[in-house]
Amino acid sequence: MASSTSFGIVLVFIFLSITADVSKILPPKVFSVMNYGARSDGSTDDSQAFLRAWNDACEWKGKSRIMIPWGTYMLNSVTFLGPCNGEMTFLIRGILKAPTNPTLFFTNTWIGFRYVDNLTLEGGGYLDGQGTFAWRYNDCYRNNRCLPLPISLRFDFIRNSNIQNISSINSKNAHINLFACNNINISNIKLTAPANSPNTDGIHIGASNNVKISRMNIGTGDDCISMVSGSQNIDISDVFCGPGHGISIGSLGRSFEKEYVMNINVVNATLKNTQNGVRIKTWSPSSSSLASNITFQNIMMENVSNPVIIDQDYCPFCPPMGGQSISLVQIRNVTFRDIWGTSSSKVAVSLQCSRVVPCQNVKLVDIDLAYKGPGGPATATCSNVIGTSYGKQVPSGCL
Ligand SMILES: *[C@@H]1O[C@H](CO)[C@@H](O)[C@H](O)[C@H]1NC(C)=O
Ligand SMILES: *[C@@H]1O[C@H](CO)[C@@H](O)[C@H](O)[C@H]1NC(C)=O
Ligand SMILES: *[C@@H]1O[C@H](CO)[C@@H](O)[C@H](O)[C@H]1NC(C)=O
Ligand SMILES: *[C@@H]1O[C@H](CO)[C@@H](O)[C@H](O)[C@H]1NC(C)=O
Ligand SMILES: *[C@@H]1O[C@H](CO)[C@@H](O)[C@H](O)[C@H]1NC(C)=O
Ligand SMILES: *[C@@H]1O[C@H](CO)[C@@H](O)[C@H](O)[C@H]1NC(C)=O
Ligand SMILES: *[C@@H]1O[C@H](CO)[C@@H](O)[C@H](O)[C@H]1NC(C)=O
């Protein structure tokens, strides 16, 4: 009796594991937005059709593929919510267009994904944020119009997912934002906005772990990639950045952001005509925090204003005497290795660390940066830095 019961249980287990496997092997069920009433005429709002397709796909107990065929789709602010019952693919073959008027957005998200596991976003299509009007409208400094402009693609609480082979142009705010994500691979993506478009970060990462970014082509108006509080285990490789503000860690140490930034590796990047190359930036004054284990390696600079920079005195709205190198963010274990090319300003290497918690274990290895403009050659300036340098050092003078 006992043995036949356990035999039955074993059978049930076998059955369950077979059906589980079958749903993994089966091809995905396709949910085309066209079957949910999308018009793809470039002007009718297709948001509801997309949301209905998502809801059905998300409920499907197996692999789902949301299909967005060739065509142009006007979408208002939409958020695709999980958790879902199986792996989700969001296949964008067409063009998604945002409304131009930023006052139509009630959230700072244009297209959002939340609480989804095993998501793949791909398809060769692109997102057009239609930012031109919003950038002019959001004139925070002169006319005090400071709208929370929508980020084109927001990922919140997303795990085990891939974002690949898509493009984004003219985002109103950042192109892509990751918050509280884990195990995300981002590759083969093109992000484009004009050099003078405000706040159009390429990829902005916060509170996220295990993110791999590769094969990126980014030309935008703010940081190509920025990593803030809580960014850990981030690997970035094969990135072209320009125009833009470079690849940046920070700004760190705002009073409400204390999570550490750790294990960031940036290798094989080219920066061209950018404001910064590779940068770590913290507020001064700041809350106490830690940024450690950071490597920038094999990076070519072409006409970059601040190719290698640590700035612990960041305080754009402080009075001129305000920044006094009193950041409490400890920066340690940072390596700049194999960094070469041209600087568009005389100071090619600038490491300005905190007087209170000096940078520790900073390494400069094989640096070769030229400045050909007036007042050359290039120089390096450091303060409050403990570290070493070896290999080629042009310009020299630090460490
Ligand atoms: C996501 O994938 C993992 C690993 O394959 C699996 O354990 C989990 O059940 C999947 N979740 C969904 C919602 O597909
Ligand atoms: C990107 O997507 C397009 C359109 O679906 C496809 O033809 C192309 O092969 C994809 N490229 C990669 C590298 O996956
Ligand atoms: C991301 O890529 C790494 C290998 O580079 C792989 O180990 C990991 O499983 C990938 N993650 C996802 C979500 O596909
Ligand atoms: C970086 O480029 C070198 C060749 O210059 C290559 O050997 C290495 O695999 C690349 N690393 C990554 C992470 O792409
Ligand atoms: C160098 O970069 C600046 C932007 O930082 C740009 O205005 C200038 O045209 C570039 N010079 C060359 C020679 O490309
Ligand atoms: C620092 O990075 C190295 C390799 O990049 C890794 O082996 C080590 O565990 C990291 N240290 C910490 C404290 O995470
Ligand atoms: C800094 O690196 C040393 C070894 O080089 C390691 O022992 C230490 O844990 C690292 N500290 C941090 C905070 O990553």
From TrEMBL:
SMART domains named in the record: PbH1 (SM00710)
Name of this chain's protein: Exopolygalacturonase
Entry annotation: catalytic residues: H245
Localization annotation: Secreted, Cell wall
UniProt KW keywords: Cell wall, Cell wall biogenesis/degradation, Glycosidase, Hydrolase, Secreted, Signal
Example of a GO MF term: hydrolase activity, hydrolyzing O-glycosyl compounds
Organism: Cinchona calisaya
Organism ancestry: Eukaryota, Viridiplantae, Streptophyta, Embryophyta, Tracheophyta
Family designation: Belongs to the glycosyl hydrolase 28 family.
